[in-house]
Amino acid sequence: MDWEKVLDQFETGEVRAANKIDGKWVANKEAKQAILAAFKAGELKEFSDTGFRGFVDKHNLPAREFKPENKIRMVPGGSSVRRGAYVSSGVIIMPPAYINVGAYVDEGSMVDSHALVGSCAQIGKNVHLSAAVQIGGVLEPIGASPVIVEDNCFVGAGAVIVEGIQVLAGAVIAPGVILSKGTPIYDAVNEKQVTDGIIPEGAVVVPGTRPVSAKLNWAKEMGLSLNCAIIVKYRDEKTDGSLQLEEFLR
User: Fold this and answer.
1) What is the pTM of this model?
2) What would the pLDDT profile of 30-65 be if each residue is shown by its tens digit?
């Protein structure tokens, strides 16, 4: 497997770690295998020759460098985009932020301070990842779909999205929401539980709590509750107005 060619194709956007096929996101196993092959082939190197004195990583996965013609704003102050990650024109990366190998960040999106875009995560167009957002990486198992955040989504400060959760177009994730396969997600608008790990288009999700299982008698007596996520509404004009990105900052 020519892992070096695949990493080049990741950086140009020709190859992605997941693709939407017939309306469903499907992991690209061959592409993810190439990343694992790159790790196996890599040797530890100290990167002082590229200005990263004291940093050690695989020699074939260095930090990417950008130029004005890339039309990417990589603001000084400690951010890093790893080899094999795609960052489109119009993206803003505020320090410190990190975008890992195999990730895809589409045009017009913002990756704010202390935000992480994990390995193979897919971020759509005009997405706002607020401060301290954690988008988990899913490299293994090979067949597992990575975290997906589609076009025009807003992810509030400190939100955590992991374990292959998919956030469909236009959804709003409020600050502090945790979305994982183990976090119950309830659609209070349609009065049902979301069991497939897919946040519907335009959903507005806030953090919530739910009672513990009736089987845990002591916990129930103590009034303990567990975290959950709740869809409280679907996006409307009022929501859009409150999330308007300041174009002059771009």
Assistant:
1) 0.93
2) 999 999 999 999 999 998 887 778 899 999 999 999
What tokens were used for 73? 């704003």
Band (241; pLDDT cuts 50, 70, 90): low
Q: Say what the pLDDT of residue 192 is.
A: 97
Please give the biggest Cα pair distance in the chain. Answer: 62
User: How would you write the chain as a 3-class SS string?
Assistant: CCHHHHHHHHHHCCCCCEEEECCEEEECHHHHHHHHHHHHHCCEEECHHHCCCCCEEECCCCECCCCHHHCCEECCCCCEEECCCEECCCCEECCCCEECCCCEECCCCEECCCCEECCCCEECCCCEECCCCEECCCCCCCCCCCCEECCCCEECCCCEECCCCEECCCCEECCCCEECCCCCEEECCCCEEECCCEECCCEEEEEEEEECCCCCHHHHHCCCEEEEEEEEEECCHHHHHHCCCCHHHC
d(CA 196, CA 85): 27
| Alpha-carbon span 131 to 92, nearest angstrom | 13
CATH topology of domain 65-237: UDP N-Acetylglucosamine Acyltransferase; domain 1 (2.160.10)
pLDDT, tens only, 140-195:
888 888 999 999 999 999 999 999 999 999 999 999 999 999 999 999 999 999 99
3-12 vs 29-41: helix crossing angle, rounded to 10: 120
Mean pLDDT score, 73-96:
97
Please say whether the beta carbons of 159 and 149 come within 8 A: no
